[in-house]
Design a protein that fits this description.
Layout: E1 2-6, E2 10-20, E3 23-33, E4 39-40, E5 43-44, H1 47-61, E6 67-72, E7 77-85, H2 90-104, E8 112-122, E9 125-137, H3 138-150, E10 154-160, H4 161-173, E11 180-186, E12 191-197, E13 200-207, H5 212-222, H6 226-235, H7 242-268, E14 276-280, H8 289-297, E15 301-303, E16 311-312, H9 318-324, H10 329-335
Parallel strand pairs: 1-6, 3-16, 6-10, 11-14, 14-15
Antiparallel strand pairs: 1-2, 2-3, 4-5, 7-9, 8-9, 11-12, 12-13
Helix pairs in contact: 1-3, 4-10, 5-6, 5-7, 7-8
Amino acid sequence: MIGLDISTSGVRLVELADAGKGLVRLERYATESLPRGAVVDGNIENMDQVADAVRRVWKKSGTRAKHVALGMPPAAVITKKIILPAGLSEDQLEVQVESEASQYIPFALDEVSLDFDVIGPALNSADDMEVMLAAARREKVEDRIAIAEGAGLLATVMDIESYAARSALENAAGLLRDQIVALFQIGAQATHVSVLFNGEAVYEREQPFGGNTLTQDIVRAYGMAFEEAETRKKAGDLPENYRADLLAPFLENAALEVTRAIQFFYTSTPYTRIDRIYLAGGCALLPGIMEIVAGRTRIATSLASPFENMAFGPGVREHQLRQEAPAYLVACGLALRRFG
């Protein structure tokens, strides 16, 4: 099974394999850009363009796997931890979950895709268990299934993008006990913030800040089309004044957004510290972003590289991968579902 991350800017594919002795091997990875407007705010706006991009990235990767794990944007999924009596049969559990779900979901149950997972015993009651409930509008789920099918693939798992990212980070970084970690996924249109304590999410938030702001600045400054500006931004192929006049102010704004998010976390939760920041998403590839965030926040900052501690297949270009790795965090987390 392959992991397939469909974002605003493009489609990323990751295929992992069992390398034995507890090791995972990266077999293949590939990316394909999407036309502007094909995906907006996590919604598939042009099915044909996205299915074509999925078809191209699948062919480019060289994989033969047809089963795919896909992700839903966090804003499109309602998640809730609920407490239920321990010892219920599977059928009883389903009935109870549906009953509880109707209290938290603002749609008719026949309009949603619903799933749940038993986390374990409830902390304060031996007679109860904690269950994670997840629900999304069925039409949103079916859009992604249709994309996979349109590209000749079979959607096997539907995850939540933020959960997949956390899974990949934990697999790569081995989060330490009692450590509070903030993960900033800076995408094209939005930044998703997750704060983890002992590997569990204690805070999540989405901010309307992303790399498209920099691309629009390039369009205005140099009179380019948006697609050309995006391509040349990624390649670093821009006039000499780009770094000083456009990139530096954008990086300052990015660091300011991170600092604001951290302050908001402090004021709205009981926590008063963050031990480490990880940066991921397409904007994490911008030169200098890690250093400026570390300097402004005074918190140890790293790029989230999901392929740490992995073996590499013969077709993987390791040098190029190191440069692009933070953009593959979600796709890698989805691909890890193969081993779930």
